[in-house]
Amino acid sequence: xxxxxxxxxxxxxxxxxxxxxxxxxxxxxxxxxxxxxxxxxxxxxxxxxxxxxxxxxxxxxxxxxxxxxxxxxxxxxxxxxxxxxxxxxxxxxxxxxxxx
Length: 100
Prior knowledge:
The chain has one helix spanning 2-14; strands at 28-37, 40-45, 53-57, 79-88, 91-95. By secondary structure, it is mostly beta strands.
């Protein structure tokens, strides 16, 4: 039944993240760059006692202009403000585009 299928989908998308229940999609967090690769920077979210680290992909650094390498922008120890855009399993995806 199509109605039941839609109901199941909606309840699934609203269910809280079980691995990182304290993280909110769209929430803004202070972070510290821990590692930088060409494709992005790994950011430790500093507001939490337990280690929470996500990837800020190079395409999510700026909304305008193209960045070839995150190494041109960041180095370990940089402080940043990021927003959570996706949580899949243990992977946290971050953006800076809404924080500019």
